[in-house]
Amino acid sequence: MNGHQQLSISVWRKPESSRLMKNLIIVWLVQSYANVVSGRLCPSDPLCQCTLFKQNMDCSDRNITEIPALPAHLIEINFSGNTIKEVPDDVFYNNGLLEILDLSHNLISSLHQRSLYGLVNVKRLLLNNNYISYVHCLTLTALQSLIELNFKMNLYDSLGLNVTGITLITAKLDFRQPTNMTRKFWSMPTLRNMDVSGVTGICNVTTLTSEVFKLLPKLETINLSACSINYIYIGTFRKLSNLIHLDVSLNRCLKFSGLENITNDLPYTSIKTLNINKIHQANELTTEISIRHFQNLKNTTVELYTLKATEFN
After folding, report:
1. What percentage of the chain exceeds 90 in pLDDT?
2. pLDDT for 242-260, tens place per residue?
3. Taking the C-alpha atoms of 166, 168, 172 and 175 in order, what is their torsion angle to the nearest 10 degrees?
4. Nearest in space to 79 (alpha carbons), one of 42, 123, 130, 120
5. Which single residue of 7, 140, 246, 293 has CA 20 to 30 Å from 55?
């Protein structure tokens, strides 16, 4: 009887143990499925550190070192302020819905041909404040929907970027080396807004001629502030009939004597605002302002020009 009892007890306990094991397996499968569906394998997956709101993911300032596989449904993702060093080939292959990608303020050093492959709908791309010294000639040409590019504060010369076939509307770039002013980059027939300001990037151009914007006929906004400009030739802006906003402030070597050539061109534009703050040396004992510097503005549609009175104190 004792043996029978023991046998009965063992037979009775086994289903209980089996049932517990099954429950544990089910819980594990559910958790694993949830992790896979969400695209995360916590805690090692960097995406666990990000904040997801609908189709927007914020991964900024999370000390992320590499770009993980991303959920396919995302429209916007922010990776700024991390320590990402590379953009692997095809890492965005499944992100055809992505429209905004921010990789600014990282440690990226190069962009290869397939680094951005798959981003067929990206409209806004921020690559500024990295250490990019190499860009394959076909890296950007695959981004057929791109309308805004920020490539400021990189080692690679912005004027060497190949944007053939892209209908860029806004470009934020460094403007290095005056000898490069007529390179292929400037052939951007759809570009409306150009920001090459030295305030937020590198701009060391000293002279502007009519060749600089010759292939950018639709420009509406140009920011040339803090660019070390000391001379602008007549004709530089003359063919920009759509030009509405022009900022040449903080070019202290330009001086007011250089303003006349600018205002000579503006009657041929659609100018509304002109920023000429601090275009002379602050330590100059005398600053001569003549009517001829501004007289051509009466033949323009300018509504506001900015000139701080404190410059003359």
Report:
1. 53
2. 999 999 999 988 877 788 8
3. 60
4. 130
5. 140
